[in-house]
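Form 12-C: Joint structure prediction
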Amino acid sequence: MADNLSQPFDKSAMTEEEKRQVNKEIRKQIVVFALMIFLTIISFLAVGADIVPRSFAIPFILLLAVVQFALQLIFFMHLKDKDHGWATAFMISGIFITVPTIAALMLLIGVVKY
Amino acid sequence: MAGHVDTSKGLPSHPERATLEGKNKFLGFWFFLGGETILFATFFGTYLGLRNGIADGPSSQEMFHLPLVFIMTMLLLTSSLTSVLAMFAMKKNNFRAFKVWMWITVLLGLSFLGFEIYEFYEYVHQGFGFTTSAFSSSFYSLVGLHGAHVAFGLSWIIVLLIRYNKSGITLTNAPKFYVAGLYWHFIDVVWVFIFTVVYLMGVGGH
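Section 2 - Result
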């Protein structure tokens, strides 16, 4: 059986139902993409056109970045799909170390106020 | 290894994870991405710590040009969508559509890289070199590290596309393309934080 690993297939084993699911999924991804573009434009406007108060702009754009980060991971990188438990675990441990790393480096260099 | 994969009806609906090798690549790559997150975190932390140390050099407000960054962001976000569409074409065993979407991804990535090279070239010309200030060093390290990832990801995808140009979607190359696609999304995710933390906070965060 091992020889068919490098054989192309003339058809997909997907059932009609699975194909419908995939098409639904594609539409969902395009909606998510539109949402990400929208968030990007908002954050550029927030800084470039001063539509939010200066003091609030940084927490605001950071929040938008975190939302985009989540959208990318969950939808584009399929973390929401079944059997992605380990992938999620690895990514969460990465983030779990990331946040203290950034905080520690900033404090180490002496930045205490933002 | 393919012994327990049923290929009699055609391409399995998850070709990237149909074989044990594919499953292992998938798992190992996510492990790697968890580590990459931490690598970038150290660069981000350094940048955030040093970004006010401009010495005699120009400040971020003087250097950064938001319209350019906006175009670069749009290019990279769109390339993330096209690589998602490529993966769906792969699942449906549509090799032609898959290749078209992948090459569009590559083109968008190349134009992003072109803009970045132009940006760095301009900055250096305006007297903002790597050793100008702590701010410039940390800026070039962080953004340059990301740019190196983009260049590496592009070469990776181009090599795969040329290598498997005529082979169709198989259980051998599907995991390879899938993992390269994950890497590409990861690059995009990092860019979201770069345009927010470096460029937008650099222009509006003082």
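Section 3 - Comments
Chain B has a mean pLDDT of 91. The radius of gyration of chain B is 20 Å.
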